[in-house]
Amino acid sequence: MVSAPFTVRTVLGDIAPEELGTCDAHDHVFISSPQLPGQELDSADAAARELAAFGAAGGRSVIQWTPYGMGRHAGLLPDLARATGVRIVAATGLHQAAHYTQDTLDELRGEGLADVFLRELTEGIGESGVRAGLIKVAGGFHGLDAHARWTMRSAAEAHHATGAPITVHLELGTGALDVLDLLCGELDVPPHRVILGHLNRSPDLLTHHQAAASGAYLAFDGPSRAHHATDWRMPDAIKALADAGFGDRLLLGGDTTTAGARSVNGGPGMPHLLRRVRPRLELAVGEDLVERTLTVNAGRAFGVRWA
């Protein structure tokens, strides 16, 4: 019996992992949350201009981590991908409880969260017909609350039914080992199917080493804010992982979450990853590793032999 090939599930259909090209492994084309009032990414025109700017900088694909109930506008993504030539991967999943009303959470409990994830991975998101290519969940600050454990158990169930990768928002970059203990230890998700986000926000090199040694992918995503130890420490963190033999566990992303952060509005936006982050990292670890991180690693992290 011939095994199914590994493919990445984009909004325009499944593709071979190498077709991703230069990939922003964590970003948002659309997103909204009561935690970010007035900063919604909900304009299709602004999204098109941002994707086009990323493409002009050499970008070829964007992995959108926006989960259920946070303004994904899944039905708009195929036309944006066609118009800009940038491949887009959509997400199912659930963020921290603070991003939802209690009524929404109660409805999801009644419907069965794993069933929602599974439906969006295999049938499509709402009426859009766009199938998700990953499951996004979130931890807490240095730990996992009951909501995080519920979402991660549901994500693990959907993963086992489909093979889909699980991406994890780590609050300020913390709690990586707790996440791995639950997902990979208790729930039997293979570590290479787990992508840990925001490791740059907590420059704990020992934790980085332990997480990479587990086999999980480590995403360094998003430019610095005043309270984040990101840009100026990230080259050292990535070099330490590369020197320890974990260059194949690295991913890079932009994580644009507010309208003001978009390049078309004067912020760094998606192009910043390739305009500024890439050359800075090339000085630390060389052009070859950065190129492989943006292309080969991303293809492997999001490529799935779909069940």
UniProtKB/TrEMBL annotation:
Zn(2+) 2 binds at residues 136, 169, 198. Its cofactor is a divalent metal cation. GO terms for molecular function: hydrolase activity; zinc ion binding. Keywords: Hydrolase, Metal-binding. Zn(2+) 1 binds at residues 26, 28, 136, 255. This is Putative phosphotriesterase-family protein. Belongs to the metallo-dependent hydrolases superfamily. Phosphotriesterase family. Gene3D superfamilies: Metal-dependent hydrolases (3.20.20.140). Binds 2 divalent metal cations per subunit. The modification N6-carboxylysine is found at residue 136. Pfam families: PTE (PF02126).
